Amino acid sequence: MDIVTPGFGLIFWTSITFMLLLFLLTKFAWKPILNAVQEREEAIDGALEAAEKAKNDLLSLKSSNEDLLKEARTEREQILKEAREMREKTISEAKEAASKEASKVMVSAREQIENEKLAAMTEVKNQAAKLAIEMAERVLRSELKDPGAQEAMVSRALDEVKMN
Prior knowledge:
By secondary structure, the chain is mainly alpha-helical. The chain is 93% helix and 0% strand.
């Protein structure tokens, strides 16, 4: 059983070696390892905070984008409304101008028709008067061939002038 049971010397030197190793690890390795672990923990916390900040920024940008989209839609609707109003105004102005122009053309046409009607009536009257004078001249020539008839006609005309 000597093989299984350790001797006092072995336990003593093993304990001293363990204590020495523990002292050396605590003095030289433990602090750097703990510092590295702590730095790693701080880096992870910083990364988590940065991710949270990025997430909040993303949500803020998304909200801002939605607001901008709403504003753009509202502005687009306003522009379309103004364009429709301008189109309606232009159409109504064009209709009004066309109506006024049509009225002017109608008045001008009526005046022109009236003027032409008066000119035609004057022409007809002139032709009728000319025709009446020609007829009267022919009648008078045929009746005034005789000198006695000429004297009778002159006397009748003088009698009629005296009556008026």
